[in-house]
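Could you help me review a protein record that somebody else here produced? This is what I was given.
***
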Amino acid sequence: MQEFLRKLKGDRSIWAIAALLALFSFLPVYSAASNLAYMRGSGSTFTVFLKHFMHLGVGFVLMYFVHLMPYRYLRGLSMVGIMVALVLLGFTMLQGNTIEGANASRWIQIPFVGVSFQTSTLASLVLMVYVARYMAKMADKTITFKESILPLWMPVFLVLILILPANFSTAALIFLTVIILVFLGGYPINYLALIIGMGVLILSIFVLAAKAFPDAMPNRVDTWMSRIENFSNGEDTEEDYQIEKAKIAIASGGIKGVGPGKSVQKNFLPQSSSDFIYAIVVEEYGLIGAVILMSVYLWLLFRILVVSHKAKTIFGTLVVLGVGLPIVIQALLNMAVAVELFPVTGQTLPLISSGGTSIWMTCLAVGIILSVSADSSIPEKEEVEIDEENPLEILSEAI
């Protein structure tokens, strides 16, 4: 074990945070597994527990191997990755199937394995690396709006347009993160305001088109608007069932909680092991557990900022922020939904909620951050040698 730990590179605090979140996740996931097993008709909580263990196992294997890879390789890989992501998003949108009776417009089924995969999560990660690459490339150059349309904003808006019909919250989170990333990368504020205006205009056109042709995208726009209206009017309706059960769970937790595995609302709260798992955490571990869990994510944010500051290259700084900030933002958003500070979004709690794609992509993002962190300890001379041997770097700079 000690020999294995010596091979771990990068920020040890981030390794510890990822391990703590993963280990803790077994408690609320197993607790909520009874409801999930009943909904799926399997009748076995151990099956859900084992599946979560396998998802985390695959995720940490991904994290380990990615953190060993020089992060500069990502510059060239992002050029190929963005094309693959667009193809996968297009295929996901067109398939129109269902998985376990649910709308499968967010997932594709991996052949021969029988595992569903949410393509928007992969596309988000690839897009952040792509945007970081472009902004790093333009760091010493004057950016003009016209010249940035095709190489920067065209891929961004294509990804958003392909995700938007099925998953508004993910599209909005991606757009917000891209705006933050390009702002930190030095993109002119006046151009940025124009891009935000274009985004609002495209969203408005999409909503009007969906209202005019409801058969094209049934229920999606109505669902978004209904969630926002229910959140803003403060009145309890049948559609507020989830958030009401979440509030009951939180109120039942008190200061110390009812104890591990003793949640009552897990039997009534849909998505108790994923979207609303924070409510189960608060019910079982109380305000103390809720604050500690939030503090861990804020600790992760602090370490992400430290790693980005220590990065030797602009690309390293931006890619850490690009893949790291969405983890913390998504966590805070999930918590805000559970306590009714934000409308229901369907965003999971990173490394805590059950679900393969979310865990895998979070681990992949953490692996990238650790790769940048590990590079910070490499002597400058050795860093140059690695850079010169990277053929993907040549491809990235040539385009």
Remarks:
- The beta strands are 98-99, 102-103, 107-110, 115-118.
- The longest strand covers residues 107-110.
- Residues 97-104, 381-389 have pLDDT under 50 and may be disordered.
- The chain is about 70% helix and 5% strand.
